[in-house]
Automatic annotation (TrEMBL):
Molecular function in Gene Ontology: methyltransferase activity
Protein name, entry field: Methyltransferase domain-containing protein
Biological processes, Gene Ontology terms: methylation
Record-linked InterPro entries: Methyltransf_Zn-bd_dom_put (IPR013630), Methyltransf_Zn-bd_dom_put_sf (IPR038576), MeTrfase_14 (IPR013691), SAM-dependent_MTases_sf (IPR029063)
Length: 407
């Protein structure tokens, strides 16, 4: 049992994925001292239904100078954020001297479009090198974690924000109370707080247990976000399902009573209630499904090894740390992983120490099978790696179940 980070209720554990390394910690050689481990376990709050990790990893261990995730690494995500920025420009940032604050602005993938439109902006980004990439293209980025004290300071010096936005970041922040208090200090009376994160409904449906890792502290639903917002004087007014990153929901929050809740919100809440998304017996079924995936995946990889097939992987994602460490998949089963991120290349995956190589190795040394860790980018990757299939290579996927693509 632990205490809910939103409402102080009791959190009941339903899943234990064991001791895990940091999902974005890529060592340069094996055996270096100090690979940090924590217990990756998930529970649900009996009072407010918020699904959350049982144990918190200190934020500085995850988000620091060398944080290796660059949002612009996917062209699909670049388009997604350009579209999102354009929508804000047309709908919310239309007054005199509008102002948008982004929480977790990373390499500037969203704020670039805002800046080009000449609109006032500020990114909060504690990870040094990714923030520097954004600054190099002229963006205003504050190298801090967003929390109450910093938000109050920004309000003092820059006034109210019309939009506060966070993509794939709010679910990373266990101190959600401080975030809401910060939003309360900084958001204009008629402004909106908008965030998008992996959706528990998609995770259960796709059995994408690899969305569970140190950085993903909360697994939101419309119901749990609605309850959280209400505790801080806000109101969830709209939801939008997004196809990115394996299925997300974009939540739009306004000050209580300021805007009318949408039909889409009522529909999603009804759907969640019908599916029993946060019921313990539903969550326990998910646990049984995860164990099956592990057994089937390891079984397939062992069989391919016995048959003398070569197997590599594609995408050294943070998600794959959970898969490899929970299933016990090391270089004996997957020879290496290819990834486009220079900061990951030449290094080893967390915990299981599979070597990471650049994508030209994928073309130069064709494997029989490629395990697609970056399955959320499947369309983009399969489109650019058509030669792999033409040469007889086959993709292995493990969500919603273990299968060989096209087989
Ligand atoms: N928004 C980008 C996207 O969707 O691609 C980046 C997402 S990345 C997974 C999460 C980012 O949030 C990291 O760059 C991290 O440094 C940043 N971050 C973590 N905690 C934060 C906080 N409290 N305030 C602001 N940024 C934070
Ligand atoms: P993500 O699932 O957290 O977005 O991480 C995707 C990882 O996959 C990231 O390390 C970059 C890598 N990647 C490739 O290697 N090739 C690609 O085409 C794409 C889209 C991502
Ligand atoms: Zn709670």
């Amino acid at each position: 049992m632990s205490t809910c980070r939103v409402c102080d209720g009791d959190v009941v554990e339903f899943l234990d994925l064991g001791r895990q390394p940091l999902s974005d910690h890529f060592q340069s050689e094996p055996g270096l001292p100090g690979e940090f481990l924590y217990r990756l376990a998930v529970g649900v709050c009996e009072a407010c239904t918020m699904v959350q990790l049982m144990e918190e990893v200190p934020r500085e261990k995850m988000f620091h100078e060398d944080y290796p995730y660059y949002s612009s690494g996917s062209s699909v995500m670049q388009k997604h954020f350009e579209g999102t920025a354009r929508r804000f420009l047309q709908t919310e940032l239309t007054g005199q001297d509008p102002f948008i604050v982004e929480i977790g602005s990373n390499d500037g993938v969203l704020l670039r479009t805002i800046h080009e439109a000449g609109v006032r902006h500020l990114g909060f980004e504690p990870s040094g090198k990714v923030a520097d990439v954004a600054r190099a293209s002229g963006l205003r980025v504050r190298g801090d974690f967003f929390e109450e004290a910093n938000a109050i300071e920004v309000h003092r010096s820059e006034g109210f924000a019309d939009v506060i936005y966070g993509a794939n970041t709010i679910c990373h922040i266990p101190y959600l109370k401080s975030v809401f208090r910060g939003v309360d200090a900084l958001l204009a009376p008629d402004g909106v707080f908008v965030f998008e994160d992996p959706y528990l409904g998609d995770i259960l449906e796709k059995r994408s247990f690899d969305q569970i890792y140190d950085e993903h502290f909360f697994f939101f639903t419309a119901r749990s976000v609605q309850a959280a917002a209400a505790r801080f004087g806000f109101e969830l007014i709209d939801v939008e399902r997004l196809p990115v990153h394996g299925g997300e929901v974009r939540y739009t929050i306004a000050r209580g009573g300021a805007r009318r809740p949408s039909e889409a919100l009522a529909r999603l809440i009804a759907e969640e209630d019908a599916r029993g998304l946060s019921d313990l017996h539903r969550l326990r079924r998910f646990v049984a499904e995860i164990n099956d995936i592990r057994d089937n995946l390891v079984g397939l990889l062992r069989r391919l090894k016995d048959e003398g097939k070569t197997v590599v992987a594609y995408g050294a994602t943070a998600k794959s740390a959970t898969v490899t460490n929970f299933c016990g998949i090391g270089p004996d089963l997957v020879a290496w992983v290819c990834d486009t991120t220079p900061a990951k290349q030449g290094r080893l995956t967390p915990g299981m120490h599979i070597p990471i190589r650049p994508p030209d190795a994928f073309a130069a040394e064709p494997a029989d099978y490629a395990l697609l860790f970056a399955w959320n980018h499947a369309e983009e990757i399969m489109a650019k790696e058509q030669e792999f299939r033409r040469a007889g290579g086959q993709w292995i996927l493990y969500v919603p179940e273990v299968h060989v693509a096209g087989a």
